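Dear colleagues,

I hope this message finds you well. In preparation for our joint manuscript, I am sending the AB hydrolase-1 domain-containing protein (Dyella thiooxydans) sequence together with its predicted structure, so that both groups work from identical material. I would be grateful if you could confirm receipt.
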Amino acid sequence: MPRRLACQLAVLIVSIILLCGCASTGDPRRPIPSRLMPSGAHATQLVVVLPGRGDSIDALLRHRVAELVQRRWPDADVLLTGLTLPYYRAGEAIPRLDQQIVRPALGRYRRVWLVGISLGGLGALLYDQAHPGVVHGLLLLSPYLGDAPIHREIVAAGGLTSWKPGPVRPVGPQTFQRELWRSLQQWRQRPGRTATTWLAYGDHERFRAPIELMSPLLTPDHVVMLPGHHDWTLWSTALPMLLERAGASP
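The corresponding structure tokens are as follows:
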């Protein structure tokens, strides 16, 4: 995806998120804040953690995300990021994630993973849309997948498989979510992506309905639904489960 298109998409998505009244700190004029949590062993893979809209590196530290990862994957370095809302608003999230974090890691690690939490889950999907096949895998925790009208349209069509998105159109306020879902629909032609993507969400999840439009793209053993809501009580339980399943995969 050209940089201009990626920037437009990010800005438009954030305009909807802002209507929900969320706020976050961060200066998109500066590099993405990050904190590397090295493994105790020789690291062969890097896990990059993209936070939710109200989280920060400090929040990821409080919730012991690196420990959760390294308990299951002792050969993984963990990079906690402060890729917060202002970077998306400025159209800098995906270009900076690629140039500052992912590309430099590709020569150092055998595998690079994105763990995306809520807004970070959307960020992981946007990165894969812009740079398909660059990262090895995605671990998505309650990903934010846009607004209700497009979800209702997909449901009315009988699901994502039978949904007809129509001709590809330039990205704009009325089209960007359609193009995001179009890219997800095309995952059926990308077995390498679906084989290396895992998804978790809660049964009282506020994003449950759109997540369940996406989840049939994955095999059942790549999807985990747990009792819970859109919060860290759920994610702290779900992340180790996804790591265990992904770690057992070839």
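For the figure legend, we might mention the following. The chain has a mean pLDDT of 88. The chain has one domain: 3-247.

With kind regards,
E.M.
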